[in-house]
Amino acid sequence: xxxxxxxxxxxxxxxxxxxxxxxxxxxxxxxxxxxxxxxxxxxxxxxxxxxxxxxxxxxxxxxxxxxxxxxxxxxxxxxxxxxxxxxxxxxxxxxxxxxxxxxxxxxxxxxxxxxxxxxxxxxxxxxxxxxxxxxxxxxxxxxxxxxxxxxxxxxxxxxxxxxxxxxxxx
Length: 170
Fold this sequence. Notes:
By secondary structure, the chain is an alpha+beta fold. The chain is built from 4 helices and 12 strands, in the order H-H-E-E-E-E-E-H-E-H-E-E-E-E-E-E. The protein has a single domain (26-160), classed as Pnp Oxidase, Chain A. The chain has a 7-stranded antiparallel β-sheet with strand order 3-2-6-9-10-5-4.
């Protein structure tokens, strides 16, 4: 198949399982994105997080279009990205689940910038106001303007690679 053939049909010569398998070979950090919904905390696990710009300070996250947590957070106009430590896999899995009280037994405080939940014992956090959103396939790409940030703990990050979790040794 030539590049022209792909451009003409618009259809790739692979399925979503193959795409997931290949993309799984790229190691990512793990975050929990949090916000408030009518004063109540909401959150979800996200591995699609990146720095976008230094001036102005911008980051991006991706939320699946089927997420029940993102619309709740989105309504507040703000979110906090909590960067997980290597010993926080259980927290990651809890926030990856749909429904339920994800914050039961989880310590947190309100961030100074937006009031979004800042989880206890994370490596670092980035507090943002929603700048822009873009629909992209089965996800929403959210651009956040950083209003505050900090390092909470020194340590190694929780990483996601080939469908599993692990740590990092330099």
